[in-house]
Amino acid sequence: MPADIPPVLASAGADRRLGGPYAAASALARVLVPRAPLAAVAAHDIELRAIAPDLAVPVLRTTLTETLPRDERILVPAPQRTLRVANGFAEFVREAVTEPCTFFVTSYAEADPADREVIDVLVRRVPRLTVVTCDAPGAEARDEFWVGLWAEGDAARYREAVEWCQERGCHEAAVELGRRAVFDVEAADPDTDDWWAIIHATAIGLGSLKREEEAAELLAYARARTTDPLRQSTLAYTDAMLLTRHHDPERRDLEAALGLVNIGIALCGLLPDRENRAVKLGFDLNGKALIQARRGLPDEALALVEAAIELADRDLPEGAQAVHRMVLRANRAQLLAARGDHGAALADLDAAIGADPGYPDYYIDRGNLLVRLGREEDALADYEAAMKAGPPFPEAYYNRAEVRFTRGDHEGALADLDYALELDPGFVDALVNRAGLLAARGEYGRARADAEAGLAADPGNPYLLCALGQVESDGGDVARAWAAFEEALRRAPSLAAAWAGRGMLAYELGKLEEAIADLDRAVALSEEPGLLFNRALALRAAGREREAVADLTRALELDPDDLDIRLALTG
């Protein structure tokens, strides 16, 4: 080890076969938790319990799901869950480590992706901790649970391990162990409860990792090995969701998905047990609602969700399947909000949050609806509740930034976007907004870097192209700005910001008729005060004063407090 690195705080082996998905991170947690401030441990209880469940960490934040039997835990963590855990753990480490030190990690080549993610975040976000990794094995700690899974023929606990990984969002580990259980060591006989649970969790994991074709192959393999109608129904539903949510829009097939989910509904409708039928059929009706919503049939989607809610209310005991009921209410809220029934949507979101105050996602949904209703203070409270409920949530800070920006708190908005991007440097929407905000402040270098970083991750993104066009317009590279707006319009002809951006660039170049034409398109797409103001400037410069006054008058009606509009109208 080089002599110039700080003293070693901890050494750990990262071999997932010996220590599980968080082999290295859990070892670091075991060193730090006993010496860390109690407040730091308490503030990061969720992350520490996810990484090192054997530690005596107080349970201060929890979700409804954690209190229920496994068969009622229907929520599958998003792929970003492990990044949120990694960020929360890094913030704990930052509080616990007070002097420069080193974390030495061996067997890095055998680390699970979740462990690698933790290490990447530690390197990026904890400057006092030097992380040294090597692929060679060291003095590896052994966890007999995980060691036993990798020993040939030792299959008693594969289902437990696969479900443990799935519930924590460790989808790579769930898939690896699940495929091994099914194909390599044949951990359970086909068409048994354990085998089926492993198949289902593995397929869900593959879908979460955007490996839908592999998931479909696994489901086909399972379909050929069961005649159980309930399992065939679940297979049909899972296949339908893969086709509906495929990460590549070109590969989605809503008609085929509709046919598959109808098979599931037909089979579930024949189930003899009333309670079982209410759950399984309700699940499939909810899935069909998603398909119909994406097919442009929102009324039918709403009717399907309401039928699922009615089934649960009629045929399930009071309090049973609480997460299922919560999800149905939250889904109905989205459909109600889309049709403008905001009061009923808020009531459903209130009920969902009331059922599980520790689940952050619905605070975000309710906050977004409250913003649409002009209740910004209430929206901010919801975004901040989401921030507190679980590990760091970039979306909550991104949404709060938008509210702060619209209220004129540009410094607060920038701070929120900075933090959101510290948590997730690849958060494209945050890069878009920060690039625009930085350009408005004259920080063209940083703004350009954000736009280019976003385009590297999402080439052709029209919002990023607009941001780049704005940066180059303000920064003086007219040709590059024009090209960016042109490409944005080619990719998204209905994007008002692109028409407005090119229109204002034309105005600055003295091309008044082109500017007015572009701004006409922008206003037709989105009648916003700023767009009307900009078109008024172009109209006035072209000598079309009556039209300019009409635009300014309408802009002032929409935003009576805008001093620039008032001065332009009266001056």
Structure report:
The protein is mostly helical and 571 residues long. 68% of the residues lie in helices and 3% in strands. α8 packs parallel to α10. The protein starts with 7 loop residues before the first strand and ends with a helix. The model has no long low-confidence stretch (mean pLDDT 94).
Number of helices: 30
Distance between the termini: 72 Å
Apparent shape? globular
Count of beta strands: 3
Beta-strand portion reads under 5%
Look at the helices and sheets and give the structural class. mainly alpha
In short:
The protein has helices spanning 16-19, 23-32, 38-43, 45-51, 81-96, 113-125, 144-150, 158-167, 171-184, 193-208, 212-223, 229-245, 254-268, 274-294, 298-315, 322-338, 342-355, 361-372, 376-389, 394-406, 410-423, 428-440, 444-457, 462-475, 478-491, 496-508, 512-525, 529-541, 545-558, 563-570; strands spanning 8-13, 101-106, 129-133. With 571 residues, it is an all-alpha fold.
Structure keywords:
single chain; three-stranded parallel sheet; mainly alpha; 30 helices; 571 residues; 3% strand
